[in-house]
Amino acid sequence: MNRRTLFRLAGAVSVAALVSACVPAETEPDIVDIASSNEDFSTLVAAVSAAGLVDTLKGDGPFTVFVPTNAAFEALPPGTVESLLKPENKDLLIKILTYHVVPGAVTSDQLAGKRQDVATVQGQTVHIDGRNGVKVNTSRVTTADITASNGVIHVIDKVLLPK
After folding, report:
1. What contacts 85, CB < 8 A, 6 or more positions away?
2. What is the DSSP letter of 29?
3. What whole-number distance in Å separates Cα of residue 7 and Cα of residue 30?
4. In the chain, which ranges are E strands?
5. Where exactly are the structural domains of the chain?
6. How many C-beta neighbours within 10 Å does residue 85 have?
7. Cα–Cα dist 147/70, whole Å
8. What is the pTM assigned to this prediction?
9. How far, in Å, CA of 80 to CA of 77, rounded?
10. 103-134: buried (b, 16+ CB within 10 Å) or exposed (e) per residue?
11. What kind of fold does domain 28-156 have according to CATH?
12. Is 48:54 a contact under the CB 8 Å cutoff?
């Protein structure tokens, strides 16, 4: 390889390094980004938006969110979701949604083999039973440990309703 080719190659590598340094690094998606990218969570995303909680769940956290699927919302009595999405029911919707959120990032291995009551952001506690899979109150975690930039998502099969 002659000297001219070597300098051209070095110059090309330098330019490529400079360009790649200027391209913003992709960041890990947050809880809302992950939920929004999955069609199975569209009811939850609509509810979070109606409750005005998008910015909160895009915040620094960390949060652990028990995310009900669309099927979990569909299992509620007819008309429940539609009623909760009305502006006059925003306070109740916030109460229900924040009952699905626990401060801190809690993974399934931290829950395994334990039974405990855990305080939610809403203020009440949920009962977590990690002895045979993970259950939250009467809901079962169907997919655990979806990592987000600001916490952890656990998919559940029933909507959690505060007392």
Report:
1. 46, 47, 50, 93
2. P
3. 43
4. 63-68, 101-103, 115-119, 125-129, 135-136, 139-148, 151-156
5. 28-156
6. 16
7. 20
8. 0.82
9. 6
10. eebbeeeebeeeeeeeebbbeebbebbbeeeb
11. FAS1 domain (2.30.180)
12. yes
Cis peptide before 62 (omega within 30 of 0): yes
Please name every residue paired with 147 in a beta bridge, in sequence order, or none if there are none: 152
β-bridge partners, 66: 154
pLDDT tens digits in sequence order for the chain, 163 residues long? 544 443 444 444 444 444 444 444 458 899 999 999 999 999 999 999 999 999 999 999 999 999 999 999 999 999 999 999 999 999 999 999 999 999 999 999 999 999 999 999 999 999 999 999 999 999 999 999 999 999 999 999 999 999 8
- Nearest CA among 47, 32, 122 for reference residue 86: 47
Distance (Å, whole) CA 57 – CA 97: 11
Pairs from 42-46 (Cβ < 8 Å, separation ≥ 24):
42/70, 43/68, 43/70, 43/73, 43/74, 43/81, 44/68, 44/70, 44/73, 46/85
Strand 151-156 versus strand 63-68 pairing type:
parallel
In whole angstroms, give the CA distance from residue 67 to residue 69: 6
